[in-house]
Write a structure and sequence with these properties.
single chain; 312 residues; alpha/beta; five-stranded mixed beta sheet; 56% helix; 9% strand
C-alpha cells in the first residue's frame, strides 16, 4: 500500500508540475494606460547595456515606452533590500515589469524560463508576499542565463517608486525564503517522488497556518513552528523525501518569519490564501479537463498497471 501511495503521489506531482506551467497565463497590458492603477513599471538590471535593454523591452512586449515607467537596479539596491553587502551592479541582468491590480493577489509569470535557471514562479510569489508585495502582476525576463535570485529587488524598487514603502527586515527574510526554498529544491531535484511545485505549495501552507495560529493564540513559540512545519511537510507527502537538514532549514526560516510584521498582517494572509487557491483551482481544473478527455483514466490505468507488475 505504501508503494501504491507513492505511485499515486507521482500522478499528483505530475499534475502539480503541469499546473505550475499553466497557472499564470496572463500578459501585462501596455497598449493602454490604466487610469486607475497607473502605468506598469519596468525595472531593468543595472548590468545591461543599451542593446540588452532594448531586447528586454521587447521581451516585455512594450511597443510604446510612454506607456511605462522605467527604472534600474543597482548594487546599493541589493544592500538595501536583500542585505547583500557590496552588491555588484554589473551582475544584475534579470529584469521585471510590475503592474498593480485591484485584487487577485500576487501573480508571477517568467517570460524566459530558459534563462531563469533556479527560481520558480511560485517561489517568486511566495517571497514577494513575505516582503509585503500585494495585488500585482509581475513578469520576469532575462536576455541571458542567470539564477534569477536578484529579480525581486526590481519588484521592491517598483513598489516603492509607486508609493509603497516596504519593511527591509521583511525583504531580507523574503530573500532568505527564496534562497532556502530554492536550495532545497535543487538538492532534491533528482530525488524520487520530489516535485518543486509541491514544495512551493507546502511553503505557502506553512506560512498560512502560522499566521492563523498567531491570530488565534496571540503568540507563536518554537514548538508551534516545529509542529506546523512537520505537519504540513507530512501532509504534502514530503516527510520521507526531504532530509532532516532540509526540514530544519525551513524551521529556522520560519522562526525568522514569525518575528517579522508579516505574521500579523491580514493582507499577507489574504495574499497567501489567493496564492493557495490559485494552485488548488489550477490542479482541479487540469484534473477535470483530463477526466473529460479520457486522459485521466489513461494516467491512472498506467500507474495501476505498474503497480500490478510490481506486486505480482
Amino acid at each position: 500500500m505504501k508503494l501504491m501511495n507513492k505511485v499515486l503521489g507521482a500522478t499528483l506531482a505530475s499534475v502539480l508540475a503541469m499546473s505550475s506551467l499553466s497557472a499564470n497565463a496572463f500578459a501585462i497590458e501596455t497598449e493602454v494606460i490604466d487610469e486607475k492603477w497607473g502605468k506598469p513599471t519596468i525595472v531593468y538590471g543595472g548590468g545591461l547595456n543599451q542593446e540588452q535593454i532594448n531586447q528586454t523591452t521587447n521581451l516585455f512586449g512594450v511597443t510604446d515606452k510612454n506607456n511605462v515607467y522605467e527604472m534600474y537596479t543597482y548594487g546599493q539596491d541589493l544592500d538595501k533590500y536583500l542585505n547583500f553587502v557590496g552588491g555588484n551592479t554589473a551582475s544584475l541582468i534579470s529584469s521585471v515589469m510590475v503592474k498593480k491590480t485591484g485584487s487577485n493577489g500576487v501573480v508571477v509569470k517568467i517570460l524566459t524560463p530558459e534563462n531563469i535557471t533556479k527560481i520558480t514562479q511560485q517561489q517568486y510569489a511566495n517571497a514577494a508576499i513575505t516582503a509585503g508585495v500585494y495585488n500585482c502582476e509581475i513578469e520576469v525576463a532575462s536576455v541571458s542565463r542567470v539564477t534569477g535570485e536578484s529579480a525581486l529587488t526590481g519588484v521592491y524598487k517598483a513598489f516603492e517608486a509607486n508609493g509603497e514603502v516596504l519593511d527591509t527586515n521583511r525583504t531580507a527574510v523574503a530573500q532568505e525564503e527564496l534562497e532556502t526554498t530554492n536550495a532545497i529544491a535543487q538538492e532534491n531535484a533528482n530525488t524520487q517522488g520530489f516535485n518543486s511545485s509541491t514544495l512551493d505549495a507546502a511553503m505557502t501552507e506553512i506560512k498560512k497556518e502560522l499566521a492563523e495560529a498567531k491570530q488565534q493564540y496571540g503568540s507563536i513559540d518554537q514548538q508551534t513552528v516545529i509542529n506546523v512545519v512537520n505537519n504540513v511537510i507530512n501532509n504534502y507527502n514530503l516527510g520521507n523525501i526531504l532530509s532532516q537538514d532540509n526540514i530544519n532549514a525551513i524551521i529556522n526560516l520560519m522562526n525568522k518569519y514569525v518575528n517579522t510584521s508579516a505574521i500579523d498582517s491580514k493582507e499577507v494572509l489574504n495574499q497567501l490564501n489567493n496564492l493557495a487557491n490559485s494552485l488548488h483551482i489550477d490542479v482541479n481544473g487540469l484534473i477535470q479537463d483530463a477526466k473529460a478527455s479520457g486522459l485521466w483514466d489513461k494516467i491512472v490505468n498506467f500507474f495501476v498497471d505498474i503497480w500490478n507488475m510490481l506486486t505480482k
